[in-house]
Amino acid sequence: MKTIEHSRRDFLKGCAAATAIGAVGPGLFFSGAAQAANNHDTVVSVFLRGGMDGLNLVLPVNGQDRIHYEQARPDLAIAASGAYGALPLTLGNGSATGFGLHPSATGLRDLWNDGMLGIVQCCGLLTSVTRSHFDAQLSIDLGTPGRQGTGTGWLARALDTQPDVTASMPLTGLAVNSRQPANFNGSTTALTMGSPADFALNAGAWSWQKARDNSPDDLVGINDVLESMWTPGKTGLERSGARAESALRVIAQQPYENLPADWPTSTFARQLWTVAQSIQMNLGLRYATLDLGGWDTHDGQGTAGSGYHYYQNKIDELSQALSAFHATLAASGHLSRVTTVVQSEFGRRVRENANRGTDHGYGNPMLVMGGTVNGRKLYGNWLGLDPQVLSPYYGDVPVTTDHRRVLSEILIRRMRNPNLGAVFPGYGGYTPMGIMKGSDLTPVGMAASAATPAVAASAIAPSRRPVAPRPSTPTRPSTVDRPRPAPTPTPTAPQPRPDWTQQVQREIRQLQRRVERFFRDVMP
Hints:
Elements: H1 4-24, E1 42-49, E2 58-60, H2 63-72, E3 87-90, E4 96-101, H3 106-113, E5 117-124, H4 133-142, H5 154-160, E6 173-176, E7 191-193, H6 206-209, H7 226-229, H8 236-253, H9 267-280, E8 287-293, H10 310-331, E9 338-344, E10 364-370, E11 377-379, H11 387-390, E12 401-402, H12 403-413, H13 420-423, H14 457-460, H15 500-522
Parallel strand pairs: 1-8, 1-9, 5-11, 5-12, 6-7, 6-8
Antiparallel strand pairs: 2-4, 3-4, 5-10, 9-10
Helix pairs in contact: 1-8, 3-10, 9-10
């Protein structure tokens, strides 16, 4: 029988554990000592949320596609040359590709010229088409296009199946975010933190949290006794609390520094600086992810030039931060084992709208960079911008390369993780494109065949469905060929009434579809 004192002690344990877990987030369950050396690869996934206009980041600079591009974007077209003209993309032998980068993407251009950047054109959701930000982002985060009931994200599954990862490695997965992103859903080993400075347990009075330089003699703070309170950790809550406390301790012991003077000062740059330091700290980091939002440019997108241009500033923010990130890794000798992937949920329409912006589209470039890339090359199947070619896609740049194909090559050739069937359930379209350095492994558990690309017009633009053919006028049946009476239907057992929560969810989904149809109608 427990005494009152024992019950009180257990109650305090539970309160402390729940407070710690709630403060630092659900993805904070790791422990152990730092590993000896960085002898492994790391993947950094950058998600541009909002639907980045890839056609003004990687744009045609000559030929017939240039003519179609200027006709479709009389106000938004980036100049082919001049002070604010596109930055030409040339191959390693100096020959032209016919494409250029936005003039603000000087950092990306330098990575390209150094052979550290490869671009996969017309990339995205090949088998599931949607103009909804929410659906498209979730499909990519989960790695299961068209199936949103998956309880885990693709990064969580990649980490769970990653060879040579052990419990003694303190930080194998990292999301630099204010909350756990969907691509790490289901992971109990990945850590989510906005910044190292804010990664602390701040419950209770500030002066009671822990012993500081100006604290009274012999003060023992609340945070200082958490480890002893969770010992021996017999319950699940105690064990979770102990892991959370260990995570706090590991991060607190790392020499995270302030942003270097030569780095850009945007929030995105600060997040990349956290990733860069975490890669160099011998903590076993395998997968990291972070977001850069603000790409939903329906109006006032801007182009390139003097004065204020929204899109120009976003490209500059992205390019400068990625350039500083890779320069830091190169200077510290870590770039040869880091791969950075940049993607968005979908691209924008080829033709600009009446508000000098662009609406939701389909295919988009996917950027792959780092010392592990066979760079300075364009990959994928570019179909061009001829309106007749794009007509089956309602004027969108089509998707010709499944984004999972690019990620699968990174998993196999760099991470040495062949478990594609577990990471991307149902995916069967993998063959290497040659974008990554390294040797191939036989995929494990991959679907037998590739899924059919979703290119049906009704799926691409539900608000603009083709007109159904008019039925022919029925003729009077002859006396010889008289219609037979319909058979009496066989009675079936009454179906159970759906649960009220399912009915509410169904009504919410119907409302969401009506709202999306409305916006597609007013912003085609």
